[in-house]
Design goal:
Blueprint (H helix, E strand, L loop, with lengths): L69 E2 L3 E13 L7 E6 L8 E4 L3 E8 L8 E3 L20 E6 L6 E6 L6 H6 L3 E7 L14 E9 L18 E4 L2 E2 L2 E6 L1 E8 L6 E5 L4 E6 L2 E9 L2 E3 L4 E7 L8 E6 L3 E11 L21 E10 L7 E4 L11 E4 L3 E8 L6 E6 L4 E6 L14 E5 L3 E7 L5 E6 L3 H5 L3 E7 L1
Parallel strand pairs: 2-5, 4-9, 10-14, 13-21, 22-25, 24-31
Antiparallel strand pairs: 1-2, 2-3, 5-7, 6-8, 8-9, 10-11, 11-12, 14-19, 15-18, 15-20, 16-17, 16-19, 20-21, 22-23, 25-29, 26-28, 26-30, 27-29, 30-31
């Protein structure tokens, strides 16, 4: 059984800090996950030749919206499971995976600003797991802290107040020691906070508001999922769980909520012969819409874009491409439709930033040891759930300088729980276009420095911050803050 000591899953150094490949194999004994060992879903090993991926032969599914068990003016109550399941990722082949609600891409949850969401999560696995609402402003006991686990066969309640403005979030497993494999095997889904104050903007909505989760995956020659290996070998890119699908659209405007759910990949996206109109970032709408030819999304980042297909004749095809993977999704214009939506130049003023009263530094790095996997560290320390690294006064505004002391070219990113931040500088100069807006996740390449500012309003308690390349946080590149009165 693969464990933490057997994996060099750092990635990004030379051809990648190579890991030990692990296939979903015949039933094996499970190791004790409380000691940080990796546990994998039991399954059979497939034999034969890996099925070929023929582009544009399968439609991109839109994950169903989870229906509440109870709905009141103040809250909605949902039931959600975590379970072993299978998914047809390669054509004609059922691959063992994990799924929220028994689905490889979990159901979309649509909350509303000012209306609570309560989720009764039942763990049907034979190992602990949990759920973290990525980008959510939630109390610490409902944040999915790495040590706050749902044991096998147990059910627990997660409360999401939805006090933040409308935005695109996502939910995923955050159980320390197993988060990387759990998310890789399918424990992720979209969470959309809908905000009535956006209605006056008349952006595309309803069936024309579509979440798209992008990620990569690796198969061996027989079609087995390879759980950990060199990340550069994850050459199959999925859009909502399907490789190179098509998506039929009307000749009108669409809002696409793009979410990078890959464990450690940076997407650089373009459209063939067209441009994106970017309207949102991790924390919600931008101050103004921006027309751009390229989108950069590191792991866990989100961006909302509008694509206007009205200028295309019926039968046209527009392809979404990535600089490494090539063509990953095709939009097929198949019909006409009325369209009263619009994309205003001015969207929503970003909140004013209070003056910072505290300055901190955060350094992400690997520590290499002879003949062993590296440790991931923040400010020289491996993650310890019993150690508080930063103590922060509730309501304080702080400026953090984030850097990596690794060799040039090594990639990380940075994610802060509970609050969004604003990027002030990158490498001493202005932020990149992809840094604009309210952010909770940003890429950081060794040799770069990024200065961000955040106000820690809301709750007291312990939260984590970490590299969201999940194999990096898994080996210790995570730290803990505590907000105090």
């Amino acid at each position: 059984m693969l464990n933490r000591r057997g994996v060099l899953a750092a990635g990004g150094i030379a051809a990648g800090v190579l890991g030990v490949p692990k296939l979903l194999a015949p039933a094996e004994g499970h190791e004790d996950s409380t000691h940080g060992e990796h546990v994998f879903v039991e399954s059979k090993t497939f034999t034969g030749t890996r099925p070929a991926i023929v582009p544009w032969t399968r439609p991109m599914p839109v994950p169903p919206v989870l229906k509440p068990l109870v709905s009141t003016p103040k809250q909605e109550i949902y039931q959600l499971t975590i379970e072993n399941t299978t998914a047809e990722i390669l054509p004609g082949l059922q691959s063992p995976v994990l799924g929220f609600g028994g689905q490889f891409v979990g159901p979309t949850i649509r909350g509303k600003t000012g209306r609570k969401t309560l989720i009764m999560l039942q763990n049907k696995l034979d190992e602990p797991a949990n759920v973290h609402l990525h980008g959510g402003h939630v109390p610490p006991e409902h944040d999915g802290h790495p040590k706050d686990l749902v044991e096998p066969g147990r059910t627990r309640l997660y409360l999401y107040p939805n006090t933040q403005q409308g935005t695109t979030l996502w939910y995923h497993d955050h159980s320390h020691g197993t988060e990387a494999s759990h998310v890789y095997l399918g424990l992720h889904g979209a969470y959309v906070v809908e905000d009535d104050s956006e209605r006056g903007l008349n952006l595309p909505s309803g069936a024309y508001d579509v979440p798209i989760m992008l990620r990569d995956i690796q198969f061996d020659d027989s079609g087995n999922i390879v759980v950990f290996d060199d990340p550069s070998k994850r050459t199959v890119v999925l859009a909502n769980g399907v490789p190179q699908p098509y998506f039929e659209v009307a000749a009108r405007k669409y809002r696409f909520r793009l979410i990078n759910t890959a464990n450690q990949r940076v997407f650089k996206l373009k459209l063939t012969g067209d441009k994106f109109t970017r309207i949102g970032s991790d924390g919600g709408l931008l101050g103004a819409s921006v027309v751009t030819e390229e989108l950069i999304l590191s792991s866990a980042e989100r961006t909302d874009v509008v694509i206007d297909f009205s200028k295309y004749p019926i039968g046209s095809r527009v392809v979404l491409t990535d600089f490494m993977a090539g063509e990953i999704l095709r939009f097929d214009v198949v019909r006409r439709a009325t369209d009263n939506s619009r994309v205003p130049a001015v969207l929503r003023p970003l909140p004013a930033q209070p003056l910072s009263t505290v300055d901190r530094e955060v350094d992400l790095a690997f520590v290499f040891k002879p003949n062993e996997r590296p440790d991931g560290v923040i400010n020289g320390k491996v993650f310890d759930m019993d150690r508080v690294d930063f103590t922060i006064k509730r309501g304080a505004t702080e400026t953090w300088l984030i850097r990596s002391s690794d060799p040039t070219g090594v990639k990380h990113n940075f994610h802060l729980h509970l609050v969004q931040f604003r990027v002030l500088e990158r490498n001493g100069g202005p932020p990149l276009p992809s840094d604009e807006g309210l952010k909770d996740t940003i890429p950081i390449t060794a040799g770069e420095t990024v200065k961000v500012r955040a106000t820690f309003t809301g709750y007291t308690g312990r939260y984590v911050y970490h590299c969201h390349f999940l194999e990096h946080s898994w080996i210790g590149m995570m730290a803990q803050l505590e907000i105090v009165p």
